[in-house]
Amino acid sequence: MPTLLVKNIEHLATFDDARREIKGGALLVRDNVIVRVGTTTELAGTVADRVLDLSGHIVMPGMVNTHHHMYQNLTRVMVQDDDLFVWLTTLYPIWAELDDEAIYASARVAMAELIQSGCTTSSDHLYVLPNNCRIDSEIRAAQEIGMRFHAARGAMSRGQSQGGLPPDSCVEKEDAILKDAERLIHEFHDPDRHAMNRIVLAPCSPFSVTPGLMKEAAQLARSHKGVHLHSHLAEDLDEETYCDRVYGTRSVDFAASVGWLGPDVWFAHAIFLNDREISLFAETGAGMTHCPSANMRCGQGIAKIRQMIDAGVRVGLGVDGSASNDTSNMFLEARLAQMLQRVAPARYLSETPGGRGGFGGSPKALSAREALEMATRGGASLLGRDDIGYLAPGMSADFIAIRLNQLGLSGTQRDPLAALIMCGPFRVDYSFINGHEVIARGAFTGLDIDDVLACHQKVMARIYRQ
Ligand SMILES: [Zn+2]
Fold first, then answer.
1. How far is the CA of 320 from the centre of ligand 1 (A)?
2. Strands 358-360 and 347-349, sheet pairing
3. Per residue in 365-394, pLDDT tens?
4. From ligand 1's centre to the CA of 268, what distance in Å?
5. Cis peptide before 398, with omega less than 30 degrees from 0?
């Protein structure tokens, strides 16, 4: 088994249980697993097949993206100024043209963007599967690129004729959805440590599937080790109104009624949770993915991240779909999580003579380290992983390095880790995933970006001809 010694790391942020940050750090990797972490002095004398000197670099765990819709990079910058339900109903007919080539091409663009911005593990929630296309195309892209990938088999089954939001041309039959989910679990799901592929069951939202599908998906997932559940929840006020009208409950109560609150469930957004529902998430172990870019882009609101962390809710980060972000950059998402939480209304301004002038937040609402922890350990926890999210012996060799001697990082020697988001975002100079060097000296080692872009353009030309 080949060994790799990474030494002379200027700042090694491990995010381990002690949150150690090591000056002059070193890592020893055997095959795909980290076997030693310490200072370069402590690891002196170690013999390795390859030695990589990362003087002048900061190293941290690869980030974990827990919510995305990669196919949406075919419809970026559309419906810029409308509410979510208008945004969706405008885009559904275009998405109805998707096929396997489109899914593969868009996944390659999204994964390349993610890896370049520090992500080494991603989930993708693919819920529009028209024209007999399959999520297998994304899994193939991830396997070729070498990205750790949790494929969330999404689904919509409640078309307009059944009182749902999507057109009937975008929805599938429920028995076919469940049959395909079972096929995917048998074909691709690996429950073991260091797995590169897992399957997630992910009906799209309360307004696009039936309660029956939610229940059956939960039952299917729970009959297989390590198959988790994911969906959107409490993303938009229109969704709350829909749940009240159709189910007579709030969205969280709807989730509870179909067995969707538990440690094997995580939701994207969870903006409109009240105190009782935040406690319910903490008690049941249900997790949430914060997607600040999309929440800001769509004007939906600010999730109560500070309150959720303090209550013990598991919180991760997600870039969300490329039609509502419109990028796939994890460093940017961590930066925006930090900034957005600070402007969340915490108090009235001008509580002095003269009256209340508006709302104000607090610079203590979320620190840079907390935002980066959501992007690493937090995301790993949501995906049910005990082998990624921090750097320690026995963990998967997923780590990134950024060169400190560059314009945007100059002057940050006092705290280069916080600088990665407070001065960023930056591109990575090295990315190792499962021990494989995917990016070296700022360039992909095995991915032809010109080809990735050309394939994407070809699909774009076809879809927009419709
Ligand atoms: Zn989403």
1. 5
2. antiparallel
3. 999 999 999 999 999 999 999 999 999 999
4. 7
5. no
